[in-house]
Amino acid sequence: MTLPANDSTSFPIGMFDSGVGGLTVMQQLIKTLPYEHITYFGDTARLPYGSKSPETILRYSIENAIFLMQKQIKMLVVACNTASAYALENLQLMFKIPIIGVIDPGVESALQATQTGRIAVLGTKGTILSQSYQKAILHKASNAFVFPIACPLFVPLVEENCIDHPATRLLIRDYLEPLKAQRIDTLLLGCTHYPLLKNLIKEEIGEGIHIVDSAAACAEQVSVLLSHHGMQNRTTVSPNYRYFVSDNPMQFQLLGHSFLGMSIPHVESR
Amino acid sequence: MTLPANDSTSFPIGMFDSGVGGLTVMQQLIKTLPYEHITYFGDTARLPYGSKSPETILRYSIENAIFLMQKQIKMLVVACNTASAYALENLQLMFKIPIIGVIDPGVESALQATQTGRIAVLGTKGTILSQSYQKAILHKASNAFVFPIACPLFVPLVEENCIDHPATRLLIRDYLEPLKAQRIDTLLLGCTHYPLLKNLIKEEIGEGIHIVDSAAACAEQVSVLLSHHGMQNRTTVSPNYRYFVSDNPMQFQLLGHSFLGMSIPHVESR
Q1: What is the DSSP letter of A46?
Q2: Nearest-10 crossing angle of helices A249-260, A23-32
Q3: Residue closest to A2 by CA, chosen among A221, A231, A222, A219
């Protein structure tokens, strides 16, 4: 992996997701690395990714990465589970800058949390069908038991702000039903939208089960990777956050607030 | 409007939608015009359209129309309400062949059904925000009362085959709640996915309310337009139906069956 020239340390970290979901990862990144500039791209004109084919996800991911490369980023975070599942390896082979996804960090979190090795993974259809989580967990802990569940309606429910709706609870109950007999001790939220449903999921799955997501672990890995390559931003001025979208900036701005945990003053069209 | 040369009568009718929804229109078209060839395009790589911006919908619609023009169609049916709302006029200005949408036919159906002129319209966010139905109804019946309701979760619920799920009933009840006090006598399904929820909607809205959709009326208008221009297919051989999608053909083939009311033997990638 060839590293960018030294003066690239002040370049932003680039991130992309199909929409607002990746902002849960950006929130953690800001906490962990408060002096890094970040440029975020949400592919809102083509969301969702979770129900589309591997070939389409790969094509979109490459296009998104090229868009961010043109913004002179020093590192790329694929802040979308479905894109991490289907495109991460290709992107890493294609581009020179360091690129990380959200699946390995999520797996790290889950393996740290579990004591019995019995782990459920919730994700979009695409992520679950890719078997990326299943393979990554078993690669690191060959005696683990993994229970994958596709929850295709969670993203639209969150996007429509139905987080407290009784229908959402019914659907969560239904999706989690097959887990009851499995005695899992850890549940991994394998989609960046799902942390917003964490409380409801916790109530339905019951006490004593660790619920983990990849956002904090991903931010930690970005930090380690920056240090390793000597690429941390050397100035401590107030960082610059830029947001680009492929569709209506207004909708992203309004919805993004609850994902990022702070207001988004300005969103640019791609 | 310049008409195609006479030998174009054997050309197919082109149709597009964001996905499988437009197949409810195609089903009616086949019933009404059993000797016409039809070429259908589902833009499954970019669905849904209902939550995206007017500019994006217009761009996608033009691209879809150009794709179908290259397949030598003699007429274009915009079998998607959101695309009809935001792109129909532009498409009609741009291309020479006759182009019709689903909004005017839906309005015709509603006005034929209503006796009190109090009409509810259910649609995607995009369709409702466009005010296309509201304007079209009031243009034809200036003393009508129109009650528009955006139902953004209906499309994902239908796409995920949750037609009989209790959560779907709860959401229908919620969306229809504001209608209770309005004494409507007609409810127009302003989205090609919604006919699959017709029974549940009927149960929730109660007896004595006409539920209409645009599919049959749209097929009727296509028939009239073909006659008017002398463009009916003159042979009565078994017609050729072709299906193209921008994403995975398999998923379209499986899901499309219940929308079209018959099996889809083969789907091609765009």
Answers
A1: T
A2: 50
A3: A231
Give B-chain residues touching A44 at CB under 8 angstroms.
Answer: 52
Nearest to B167 among A55, A159, A167 (CB): A167
Say whether pLDDT at B6 is over 60.
Answer: no
* Chain B neighbors of A170, CB-CB under 8 A: 165-167, 170
CA distance readout (Å), B24 to A167, B124, B191, B192, B193 = 27, 16, 10, 6, 8
3-state secondary structure of A120: strand
What is the spatial distance between Cα A66 and Cα A101, in angstroms, rounded to a whole number? 16
- DSSP H or E stretch at residue B244: strand B241-245
- What is the per-residue pLDDT across A75-84, written as a single tens digit (0 to 9) for each? 999 999 999 9
Residue A135: burial class (beta carbons within 10 Å; 0-12, 13-18, 19+): middle
Chain A interface disruption, residue of B43, B47, B49, B51, most A CBs within 10 A? B51
Question: ipTM, 2 decimals?
Answer: 0.89
Are A46 and B46 in contact (CB < 8 Å)?
yes
Residues of B in contact with A46 (CB under 8 A): 45-46
